[in-house]
Amino acid sequence: MALDLRLNLKLSQQLVMTPQLQQAIKLLQLSRMELLDMISQELEENPVLEDNPLEQAEEKEEVKEEAPAEETLSSIENTTEAGDAKEVHQDEQIDWQTYLEGYSMGGGTFEALEESEERPSYENLLTKKSTLYDHLMWQLNLAHLDDTQRRIAGEIIGNLDDAGYLQATLEEISDLVQVNVEAAEGVLEVVQSFDPVGVACRNLQECLLLQLRSLGLEGELPWLMLEQHLSEIESRKYNVIARALKVSLDDVLAAAKIISGLEPRPGRPFSQEDIHYITPDIFVHKIGDEYVVTLNDEGLPNLKINAFYRSALQEGAKIDKSAGDYIQDKMRSAVWLIKSIHQRQRTIYKVTKSIVKFQKDFFEKGIDHLKPLVLRDVAEDIEMHESTVSRVTTNKYVQTPRGLFELKYFFNSGISVTGGESVASESVKSRIKEIIGGENPKKPYSDQKIVEILKQSDINIARRTVTKYREMLGLGSSTERKRLF
Question: Which pTM value belongs to this model?
Answer without folding.
Answer: 0.63
